[in-house]
Task: inverse folding
């Protein structure tokens, strides 16, 4: 993945694959909680929250952003650094998960995720190859300050990662 167009395409494909998982699960499977792991529903809440966050930061007007203070890291560098730091902080994602014991409805989760995905893809249309490296959009808890390009790359990886774990739960 070397440019914004390929990252946008990869993100759209990952979002579609997550949405397709809902054809494989019913509400019982969505709410089944394996010991010491998230249920399908809890993991979807985490993915919805993070995808909504990406949409929000990418939709911010330029005047609300800070100029980048570093060159954008590539996709592989983002993934490698994230994996290394996640090993040192394995519960970091749980900090933004839904803590309340809830019963989730598949149609509601699917609709929420579809909105978050659509908003993220729409926000990406405001960016181009030059602009995506000029602005800082977020300070990730593990990766630090991120340019828009880095945020898109991370979101591709993060969505793919959860697609893999959700696929196991859907099987």
Result:
């Amino acid at each position: 993945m070397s440019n914004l167009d390929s990252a946008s395409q990869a993100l759209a494909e990952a979002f579609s694959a997550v949405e397709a998982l809902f054809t494989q699960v019913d509400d019982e499977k969505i709410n089944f909680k394996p010991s010491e792991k998230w249920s399908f529903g809890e993991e979807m809440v985490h993915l919805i929250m993070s995808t909504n966050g990406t949409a929000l930061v990418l939709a911010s007007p330029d005047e609300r952003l800070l100029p980048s203070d570093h060159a954008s890291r590539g996709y592989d560098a983002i993934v490698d650094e994230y994996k290394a730091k996640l090993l040192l902080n394995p519960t970091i994602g749980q900090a933004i998960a839904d803590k309340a014991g809830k019963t989730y409805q598949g149609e509601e989760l699917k609709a929420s995720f579809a909105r978050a995905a659509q908003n993220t893809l729409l926000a990406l249309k405001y960016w181009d190859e030059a602009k995506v490296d000029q602005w800082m959009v977020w300070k990730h808890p593990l990766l630090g300050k991120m340019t828009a390009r880095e945020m898109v790359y991370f979101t591709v990886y993060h969505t793919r990662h959860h697609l893999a774990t959700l696929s196991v739960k859907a099987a």
